[in-house]
Amino acid sequence: MSKKNGRINISKGFFQRKVTSQPLARIQAVNIEEPILYRFFGFSKVSTFTASDVKRSEEDDEKILTIFPLIRKDILFENLISLIDWVPKRSLPLNKPKPSGRYYFIRNAFFIWSTVFIFAVYFWHFSGLLILPVLFLAIWNADFYGRQTAWLVDRKKDIVIIGSSRFFAKEYYLLPFKAVQSVQVKQSIWMKNKNRAHLIMNIRKGNGSFKVQLRYIQKERR
Predict the structure, then answer these.
(1) Residue 39 half-sphere exposure, CB side, CA atoms within 13 Å?
(2) CB < 8 Å & 24+ apart, contacts of 127-133
(3) pTM higher than the cut 0.70
(4) Residue 6, C-beta contacts closer than 8 angstroms, at least 6 positions apart
(5) Mind listing the pLDDT tens digit for each residue in 111-159?
(6) Which of 196, 178, 181, 152 is nearest to 24 (CA)?
(7) Exposed, middle or buried, 156 (CB in 10 Å: 0-12/13-18/19+)?
(8) d(CA 190, CA 104)
(9) Would you list the DSSP string of the chain?
(10) Cα separation of 115 and 118, whole Å?
């Protein structure tokens, strides 16, 4: 891996080498992912989301570029900033929503999967009980999602950091202000009564868009 002339160059393969090159100017976000096994051993995976260009060449065609497939968490940011200068120099503590929105994630998972469980038992009788572990797993995952919901606005670097999760994998999105195409606040009638809202930030990803969400946060904290 190298950084040269405003581009990140990554070589892959052993017998047949493939070099992928991406312009730094087109990076829209950095994604840091920590699956269960990665966290157990103290590792992370780092990828970038890149906007496509009308005149892009074949080498620029990857909208998600993995720059560190496996890297120790304690040296992640010092290596990342050597490639992308707008990321923080170290891991920063994120703000958690207060009060927590975990209840709403758990409630949604319970209603959806308990309905599936009831229908499974009704139609398949005792075989439908096999859905019960999935119900508990879904509730556990929903609680984990709620615990990981967090954010930080770093005005020194002009970026926003969003904490999220995907099936027990921790995820962090680092978004430069200039890359955010639009911001939406969604609030149903029920959420309005609870003073909760979903904050959605849209960024470019390839030729399309990608949504980074903060769900069930207090509306005043958006």
Answers:
(1) 10
(2) none
(3) yes
(4) 23, 24, 25
(5) 999 999 999 999 998 888 999 999 999 999 999 999 999 999 999 999 9
(6) 178
(7) exposed
(8) 12
(9) -EEETTEEEEEE-SSS-EEEEEEGGGEEEEEEEE-HHHHHHTEEEEEEEEB--TT--GGG--SEEEEEEEEEGGGHHHHHTTT-TTS-SS--PPBPPSS--HHHHHHHHHHHHHHHHHHHHHHHGGGGGGGHHHHHHHHHHHHHHHHH-EEEEETTTTEEEEEEEETTEEEEEEEEGGGEEEEEEE--HHHHHHTEEEEEEEEEEBTEEEEEEEEEEEGGG-
(10) 5
Residue type, 49: F
Provide the token pair at 186.
């969604």
Residue-wise pLDDT for 69-91, tens only, equals 999 999 999 999 999 999 999 99
Which pair of tokens denotes residue 5? 């002339």
Is there a contact between 138 and 112 (Cβ–Cβ < 8 Å)?
yes
CA distance 158 to 176: 6
Cis peptide before 35 (omega within 30 of 0): no
Cβ 213 vs Cβ 203: under 8 Å: no
CA gap 177, 107 in Å, rounded: 33
Tokens representing 23 are 């312009």
Residue with tokens 């999105």: 173
